[in-house]
Amino acid sequence: MSETTAPRPVSFASLVQQFFTEYLVTQRALSPRTIASYRDAMLLFLDFARKRLGKMPTAFNLAVAAREHKSQEPITSVFRDHIS
């Protein structure tokens, strides 16, 4: 009997790319300026998360994005408090 392997989880980078190319552009049909604003906010978040978590954004996965390793508070909430 052969073992079946679980499918590899989708990378965080792939999800971000999908969000920009499929959701914002295709499904929402947002203007290029709005998409640029989303891009700039994402770059700020990724830089903050990289410094806070000590990981390059290419190493992120949904578990990393969902929880901040010290407080177990979502990193998005920590980032929101940081920019407020």
What can you tell me about this protein's structure?
The chain is an all-alpha fold and 84 residues long.
Record the SSE blueprint.
Elements: H1 12-27, H2 32-53, H3 62-66, H4 75-83
Features:
84 residues; mainly alpha
Please give the count of helices: 4
N-to-C span = 56 Å
Shape: flat
SS class: mainly alpha
Listing every helix as H and every strand as E from the N terminus to the C terminus, the arrangement reads HHHH
Beta-strand residue percentage: under 5%
Mean pLDDT: 84
| Sheet of most strands | none
Brief summary:
It is built from 4 helices and no strands. The longest helix is centred in the middle third of the chain and has 22 residues.
